[in-house]
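Board notes (copied after class):
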Amino acid sequence: MGRREDLNRRAEHGAASRAGEPVEAGEASRDRTDGHVARWLPILPDLDPDIEGAVTRMAFFVEHLKRVRERSLVEVDLQRHEYDTLHGLAGRHGHATPSELAADLGMAPNSITGRLDALERRGFVRRTPSATDRRRVIVELTDEGRATWLRAMGGVGHEEYRTLGALDADERRTLSDLLRRIMLRAEQT
């Protein structure tokens, strides 16, 4: 049996198993990408099902993690931009100048002030004068800000471990290495 015929058979099997028909012993589990690829193969005969499958699965996985993150943010009463700011500050060991934080977030330096005002009102950050330069301000992550950031991260972190737990340690390392190679190619553009 040729590769395309095998893919079509597997795609048909995936549709049958979702419809409640029995699954043959030894058949791999199907995900929604299998159906996606099966729909597009007859329409785009030159479609490489492995590339389409990999790219679609990566996109679906990223979207899945975004949905989990959004649920986590709702649970801890954070807006996305607040989380991003706390995350950026945590990534600088809990303290940074406003301009450093703005650069990390890809924002204009004068745009960060409103975010910091709101986070300071909530008790998540505090601004203090620099000990070395009175013209500068240092933004610090408070204990409450750190705890809130960690609670928001916990939901996503748990889901990352749960989903990637389908792979053993060597498989996760291989996956990471393969994705690194892809990203190095992507970053060349």
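Comment from the instructor: The helical segments are 3-18, 32-40, 49-75, 80-90, 98-105, 112-121, 143-164, 169-186. The beta strands are 95-96, 125-129, 137-141.
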